[in-house]
Amino acid sequence: MLRSSATAAYLVLAALFFSAAAFANLNDPDPLWWVVAYVGGGVALPAAHALESRPARRRQLLGAAAALAAALGVVISVFSGRLWPRLDFGLPLGALAWSALEEEEGREAVGLTLLLLHVLLVASLLLPEGEGGGRSSLVSAGAMLALGGAVVAAIGAWVFARPDMIAKQGVAHCEGAFGGLSQLLGF
Questions:
Q1: If we measure between CA atoms, which residue out of 45, 116, 39 comes closest to residue 76?
Q2: pLDDT of residue 160
Q3: Residue 44, SS3?
Q4: Taking the CB of residue 112, how many other CB atoms lie within 10 A of it?
Q5: Would the pTM count as exceeding 0.90?
């Protein structure tokens, strides 16, 4: 049950983004986990939120969102733990961020962090009005805009600012992942 057109617009755009993320991970050595995570949390959970109006079912969805958020937190911690020792913390902050994104675990942690923020936002929308959820308030709108901005910034940084990142690291499963599309876009 959608409470505002802004929420509906956000959920549609997020579903498109996470569908694209799932598609992009089809060539990963372990695609099943990524596709399930991105489609489940990014598409199916918000779709169920939009379609379900019964309070008991919405509470079940809230429980599923909480479990998914907890699982994502654990996986992000594992990826970050693997990444941490390889980072040079003597670098300036911008260079440190790029060096983290040059590592497979860094990119995976960022993707899962975006998914976690999205799942938490959907969970807040699932809460009953009287329990602090489902608000069409400035806070909810701000959260949607912040998450949307983070997604746009991540895509922009990846595609336009650092197209050499994959080639530099020699990530075999990413090179040529989209056929001629990378040549068409010039990277």
A1: 116
A2: 61
A3: helix
A4: 23
A5: no
pLDDT by 10-residue block (mean), the chain, 187 residues = 70 87 82 89 85 80 84 85 86 81 81 85 74 52 65 63 56 51 43
Please state the domain extents for the chain: 5-185
Tally the residues of the chain.
187
- Return all residues near 99 (Cβ < 8 A) that are at least 6 apart: 87, 88, 91, 106
